[in-house]
Amino acid sequence: MAVNLVPPDPARLHRVAGVDLGVAMAGIKTANRKDLLVMRLSKGAQVAGVFTRNRFCAAPVVLCRKHLRNPIRALVVNTGNANAGTGADGMRRAMQVCAALAAKLGCRPQQILPFSTGVIMEQLPAERIVAGLPRALRDESDWLGAAEAIMTTDTVPKAASARVKLSGGEATVTGIAKGAGMIRPDMATMLGFIATDARVPAARLRAMVRRAAEESFHCITVDGDTSTNDSFVLVATGAGPAAASAKDLAMLGRAVTGVARELAQAIVRDGEGATKFVTVRVERGRSRDECRRVAYAIAHSPLVKTAFFASDPNLGRILAAIGNSGIEVGNLSLYIDDVLAARRGGRNPAYREEQGVAAMKKPEFTVRAVLNRGRTDATVWTCDLSFDYVRINAEYRT
Amino acid sequence: MAVNLVPPDPARLHRVAGVDLGVAMAGIKTANRKDLLVMRLSKGAQVAGVFTRNRFCAAPVVLCRKHLRNPIRALVVNTGNANAGTGADGMRRAMQVCAALAAKLGCRPQQILPFSTGVIMEQLPAERIVAGLPRALRDESDWLGAAEAIMTTDTVPKAASARVKLSGGEATVTGIAKGAGMIRPDMATMLGFIATDARVPAARLRAMVRRAAEESFHCITVDGDTSTNDSFVLVATGAGPAAASAKDLAMLGRAVTGVARELAQAIVRDGEGATKFVTVRVERGRSRDECRRVAYAIAHSPLVKTAFFASDPNLGRILAAIGNSGIEVGNLSLYIDDVLAARRGGRNPAYREEQGVAAMKKPEFTVRAVLNRGRTDATVWTCDLSFDYVRINAEYRT
Q1: pLDDT by residue (tens digit) across B227-237?
Q2: Does A291 touch chain B (CB under 8 A)?
Q3: What CATH class is the domain B10-269?
Q4: What angle do CA A338, A340, A341 make, to 5 degrees?
Q5: Residues of A in contact with B81 (CB under 8 A)
Q6: pTM > 0.90: yes or no
């Protein structure tokens, strides 16, 4: 039950010149299910990525980090198996997939980026993926089809698109993602892929992907667990206009960040058992780190998240979570949407609980903590902790 | 539904010379319920305490920290209201209770330690507590009665007792506690009180309470939320034998830590919705901090905790949680009780999932992570994340 999330309209997902998409049913874990995506890139495409900080990272993540030193010709994504916790054998199998695809495209295996999502600690059935490659290469998919092919337990495919006017013409930015919260028991991965036809220098692209991640995928949390496979990759094919000037780069960067944010928020809306989409905004802190720490203290507290689920404006839990992050709360104001619920660390005398309940009954609302300690802000998006979260995560294998 | 926890046998809870207990029904929140405890201490008693690190701490915690500079004559504990998030008025009301009790005992208000647990962000009904004091002072309670009087949503009263032979004779150590996990919506507090009749120098007692907390209350987690009122106080009345020699102090310290640990574990066994009591042991790390960080990463992961609930030996989730704590897991071994489930960061080839399920089906088991990076160990006790956790925390006020 996703919160205010519907499948994207394929007509609004603009094609990106220089990217060819193909999907296939490779029977990796389940028959008759799209589980393989190949994204071929035109020659000269620039690629940059950010990856999980989890030290228990998957074989494909290790390979991606390495292969990104080379010109990349294709991305290959499989669902059904995460190839994580699989040791040297897992590395060998991931390379086997890269090698098979490289042979078909006439490039080196080191020019392929592999991505896997699905069951952890089981060996990747590389031969099934390899067998599925010819079908994926023959296929001509649109971005919605690609979004569907990378879903595991997502209930809605996630894709977003934008156009932006640069000095040399209009550029397109289109992306897809899959969730999040380490999804179901063994399903571990947040994947995000965004492509633009703009031409962007490599160093600028690396900065752009980091910035976009910082403002999108790094600002979401479902249950606080970072997966072993989290990957976010930005492709600039160069088939369209150049983004060379500072102004062009800023415009393009904003478009990329906007698409990334829409995808990131879609992941939270489709979080496990989510019934509420909550924006946690922390204002007037001393630093961005401080604001983030406070925002995550709120967004990760199981007590706060169950209160969200219950539409219970439990001020004490929220203030206690903030206090746990090490912040003095004596000067703090707390808003639920526009309702001033607490000020100077205590209840606002004019606040009536019905106001808080009314705001929190909505499927989307904002919790805003004004620290009154500095000038910096931060925002995090999260969902509630519901019965369904426990059911999904507890009952999967029982 | 507490895990392997029954009410303590009153015959095994030894009286502590120099401590007089009295309880009363003061009608603080609910009528006909023991909600007030007064512990009078004999003259010359030494008292030391450790308190919540939450910056949003309650008025009584602020006062306790201050009053501990003086010789303490009594502790007063109320349930039904936490006096947290109550500002200057909350401080005034807590002092009003101290002053009333001090007047009756013929001492200064600064010689009273106040403790409150219950609803957050509502003003303390100090007048009801003051009105209840004469009855509590007339009452003669045993330790079980005292344990019952400080319960809020605990399902089982928590008390433990030990005797220890010192060079000057046998000393008694008896304590009570209430849970934990910020319990129900507005019920926020872990309280622990331990008393011994031994005579202990003030500085030694302060070291003893810190050490005991470090090995007990600081090693438990239900949901990772530190409450606003957490307090743990150790009293040494001096009515019994002296603990002067290093050996005596070590013996007594061990007994105090043992009682504290029993109380701390009882809090986890009675955690919200708990159906499993899980010991998380991390071995062969580089430092205690590192081992603790890994243990808490496991014990706080909602995905791991729901797997505990489901008796699902989900190795991937546990290794991912460890990887999230920033530890390289390539060399790690993982045991569920005595079953070697993973080694060198991957599945143990000889491991069969039935073995893991069999171990985790029990109401108590140990998850043991051997990091193979150093020589230090740490242990944390936790419980699972069940439907009832969500129900208790979501449905309380709806």
Answers
A1: 677 899 999 99
A2: no
A3: alpha beta
A4: 125
A5: none
A6: no
